[in-house]
Write a structure and sequence with these properties.
212 residues, alpha/beta, five-stranded mixed beta sheet, 7 helices, globular
Length: 212
């Protein structure tokens, strides 16, 4: 049995942080004025040998918040029709409430202190997540307010690529451009990429820190 404080835990690996991979699809670039249209979240786990793997997934189509702007160029880019009744969209509060439940369970089971957002070009996703949390008036936010893990930066360092599709291909991960710009698909690829990057560092002897 692996001890709680051994190296083969998320708690030890990320200094008490619990990584949660997030991707959002939006109707623009301004998190305070432009609509959040999709959000997906994937939690991670570490096996008994210390290899990082995908754990649980959740995703939602989101109703535009009152007064939100829908930029035509953004909708043309991601192909989302916010008025399509088949989207089965929910409010920002409903989506975040379910994501928070999943995250809280993970924090408890992995003995971690706080969730940390993992995303590709993380500042964008983090900005929209924090804006939606503020609009929803949650008393408890499990995510760190400014620290993130950015797979674009990590991929630039490890793979020499910063575009998600190119980084995935370089890492040996299949990437279908026809499925891109769907929150759940991009989140899955980002989660796989992050696991690859972390596990590669381990293979190279960079973890645990005591071997450096």
């Amino acid at each position: 049995m692996i001890k709680k404080n051994s190296f083969n835990t998320l708690n030890a690996r990320f200094r008490g942080f619990y990584p949660v991979v997030i991707d959002v699809e939006t109707a623009g670039f301004n998190p305070n004025t432009d609509a959040l249209l999709e959000i997906a979240a994937i939690t991670l786990k570490m096996d008994c040998n210390g290899w990082l793997k995908i754990d649980t997934k959740i995703n939602f189509h989101i109703k535009s918040f009152p007064g939100a702007t829908l930029q035509p160029s953004a909708l043309a880019f991601n192909g989302i029709d916010p008025y399509n009744p088949l989207r089965s969209a929910v409010t920002e509060y409903e989506a975040l409430n379910e994501i928070f439940k999943m995250v809280r369970q993970g924090l408890k089971s992995q003995d971690c202190n706080r969730a940390i957002l993992v995303a590709h070009n993380a500042a964008f996703d983090h900005g929209f997540l924090m804006a939606a949390i503020e609009r929803s008036d949650f008393k408890y936010n499990p995510f760190h307010p400014f620290v993130t893990f950015d797979t674009a930066t990590l991929s630039g360092l490890v793979l020499g690529q910063t575009v998600l599709a190119k980084a995935c291909i370089c890492a040996g991960i299949v990437f279908d451009n026809n499925k891109a710009h769907s929150a759940i698909y991009d989140t899955e690829r980002t989660a796989m990429l992050f696991c690859k990057l972390v596990n590669r560092w381990k293979k190279l002897g960079g973890w645990p820190a005591s071997v450096l």
